UniProtKB/TrEMBL annotation:
Belongs to the L6 tetraspanin family. Keywords: Membrane, Transmembrane, Transmembrane helix. Its main location: membrane. The chain crosses the membrane at residues 12-30, 45-68, 89-110, 157-185. One of its GO terms (cellular component) is membrane. Pfam families: L6_membrane. This is Transmembrane 4 L6 family member 5. It is a multi-pass membrane protein.
């Protein structure tokens, strides 16, 4: 596969993944779909790992990869696609960093569990010291009474962030290597070929 076609393909996967991360992080700000609980959220929600790390920091490499798959700044002439590929190298490295940030914060959030009211009383992290074993024991989830269904909400959305950020790390890594090859070797497409 040509470096340009590969870049475009990777970019078209990265863009929706970054949008999924942004939406998932936005939903974490409104547990159970209610704005009533916004002041009582887990600290990991406020780190905005899905919005900043897996979202915006990966959206940029996605767009750069799609653009690197088009004709270069000089057309098919002097440098072909090398200029855009070079930009894609740097933005892909930024994307890897953002996706790793999203993965680490989301993983920590799954391990410590949500911040909630335990049996209608004190607010705390009831699953913080059980090393994530609450994930396999749904009967423990009833300990969190407020916000309603907060454990399911957090587990679902942070799991989506973990899965999306893992894919983003792989795809940004692939694009990093692909773009580096594109910088040194150029694009294998012929001058007459379309975008």
């Amino acid at each position: 596969m040509c470096t340009g076609k590969c870049a475009r393909c990777v970019g078209l996967f990265l863009i929706p993944l970054s949008l999924i991360c942004i939406v998932a992080n936005s939903l974490l700000l409104v547990p159970n779909g209610e704005t009533t609980w916004t002041k009582k959220l887990s600290k990991q929600v406020w780190y905005m790992a899905g919005f900043i790390g897996g979202g915006l920091m990966v959206l940029c490499p996605g767009i750069a990869a799609v653009r690197a798959g088009g004709k270069g700044c000089c057309g098919a002439g002097c440098c072909g696609n090398r200029c855009r590929m070079l930009r894609s190298v740097f933005s892909s490295a930024l994307g890897v960093i953002g996706a790793i940030y999203c993965l680490s914060v989301s993983g920590a959030a799954l391990q410590s569990g949500p911040y909630c009211s335990v049996n209608g009383g004190k607010w705390s992290y009831p699953f913080e010291n059980d090393s994530g074993s609450y994930l396999l024991n749904r009967t423990l989830w009833s300990e969190c009474t407020s916000p309603p269904h907060v454990v399911l909400w957090n587990v679902t959305l942070f799991s989506m962030l973990v899965a999306a950020s893992c894919l983003e790390i792989v795809l940004c890594g692939v694009q990093l290597v692909n773009a580096a090859l594109g910088v040194f070797c150029g694009d294998c497409r012929k001058k007459s070929s379309p975008h």
